[in-house]
Amino acid sequence: MDIAENAVLVVVDVQKGFEEEDYWGTRNHPEADDNIAALIDVWQTTGRPVVFVRHDSVKPDSPLRVGYEGNGFKDYVERRRGRGAGAELLVTKSVNSAFLGAPDLHAWLTAEGAGQIVVAGIQTNMCAETTARMGGNLGYDVVFAFDATYTFGLEGPFGWRLSAEELARATAVSLHGGGFAQVVTTKEIVAAAA
Question: Could you write out the DSSP letters of every residue in 108-159?
């Protein structure tokens, strides 16, 4: 696997509100936060661009709503913002895809001359997956850092319920098998980017 010298790390919705287990339920990938931090560190050390994405929920009871403490980035992310040698961008959104936020991520990536993005963050099967899918549709070479994402169990139609791990695996299979992204581990990305 090759990581381009100007590959952009897109850190999706790593916000304090996702720590509210009573609201979300049980998560998978307990190592994800350490892996996200490791990716940010490698990107900043090597001078590659980093995009921090924040979900500004419009739902009044959401732990990610504007004006609520949970809307802020987790402390380890906030401490790293503005510390890299490369370009940095903050994108805010109220939908799943970082490509539908402000400022326009696609326009920024185009201006940066970036053809490859690495996606990490929360939730695996929601905003991280949607951002990866749209990135693939827009023609980017998308790398999905599977163990640098996490999610929660979810109930769907017909009383069907999938665990966080089942949803994460379904995302990995859909993205990788469907040709939207190359799904890999943090260790593989760090080795290729260092």
Answer: HHHHHT--EEEEEEE-IIIIIHHHHHHHHHTT-EEEEEEEEEE-B-EE-GGG
Distance CA 67, CA 58 (A): 11
Q: What is the mean pLDDT of residues 98-106?
A: 98
% residues pLDDT > 70 (the chain) = 100
What pLDDT sits at residue 47? Answer: 97
Torsion region of 23: left, alpha or beta (phi above 0 gives left; psi -120 to 50 gives alpha):
alpha
Closest CA to 65 of 20, 30, 34, 100: 20
What does the block give as tokens for 64? Answer: 């990610």
**In the chain, what percentage of residues exceed pLDDT 90?**
99
Q: Could you count the other beta carbons within 10 Å of the beta carbon of residue 172? A: 19
Q: Which residues pair with 93 in a beta bridge?
A: 55
- When pLDDT is averaged across residues 111-138 and rounded to a whole number, the result is 98
Question: Across residues 111-116, what is the average pLDDT?
Answer: 97
Q: What are the distances in angstroms from CA 145 to CA 20, 25, 45, 165, 192?
A: 23, 22, 18, 15, 13
Identify the pLDDT of residue 60.
96
| Residues 14, 136: Cα–Cα separation, whole Å | 22
What Rg do the C-alpha atoms of the chain give, in angstroms? 15
Helix (H, G, I), strand (E, B) or coil at 177: helix
Segment 61-73 mean pLDDT = 98
